[in-house]
Design brief:
The protein folds into 2 domains: 116 residues, Rossmann fold; 150 residues, no CATH class. It is α/β, with parallel strands linked by helices and 286 residues long. The protein is elongated. It has a 5-stranded parallel sheet with strand order 2-1-3-4-5, sandwiched between helices. The chain contains 11 helices and 5 strands, in the order E-H-E-H-E-H-E-H-E-H-H-H-H-H-H-H.
Amino acid sequence: MSEQARILIIDDEPDLLSEYARILESEGYSTIKAATGHECLRLASQQHPDLILLDAELPDIDPAEARRRIKTDPATADIFIINVSGSRPSAGDRAEELEAVADGYLAKPVEKRFLLAQVRAFLRIKEAEAALLDRQEKEMLALGQFTSPSQASISAQLFGAGSLRQTLPEIFNEMVERYGVLLDLALEERAYKVEHNVSGGFVFLVERLGFLKAGPRDVVDIHSATLKKKAKESNPAKAQAYVEEGRLTVLELMGHLLSYYRTRSMAAHRSVGHRKQQSASVEGAN
């Protein structure tokens, strides 16, 4: 991804802006430069970079507000952010701790090796997520061929035959509530090193989704609706942490749903084979 990756750099100091761009471009990255927070928001929405290098001091907008807008806007929520600051958030404040968990940080003066290490790490994560989602959607589409022809298949949902949000809004809203609870638990596990049975909750949720013939689009709909709801209910730092933790939970939910359909397709294969054996036995007897 490194040769095509686009990085949006925001800093109101022209010399630093040029220096960051020089370092990144020397490694094959494409850069987009902005000197203000509002310019950052506009470029993030219009050009959708892979990564944002965000200065902690902007002349026109609080950087925390800029982060909140980026992370709560569905059009830009998947963009990784690395904060460039003179110091990390102070310990003891829960919102700040959650934000520290969610974001990457670089301390000024930024050294080339640390800048490139963070950029490469975040881009590898982004690339891995994209590859996993693509593979899961393809596998789920293939597994959908084994569902009953009398019911809406996964493939039909993928190609627009209807979604849970449209056809079963009450159940969809219930799924959003359940997923929101799991997202809360997952965030607490990560930030405070406690243990919750999040995986068990995903299994229960997936059983209902599988019964309803849900597909990847339904998972993404539930995930997006949950993040919008959390954004309205939370302070900016926690809303941002929800978005970052959601990168992992949506993949876990998709993986559980894929396993559900894979198991079902294997059972269908065994059932078909058993019926063929019975049919052959009857014909042989006759």
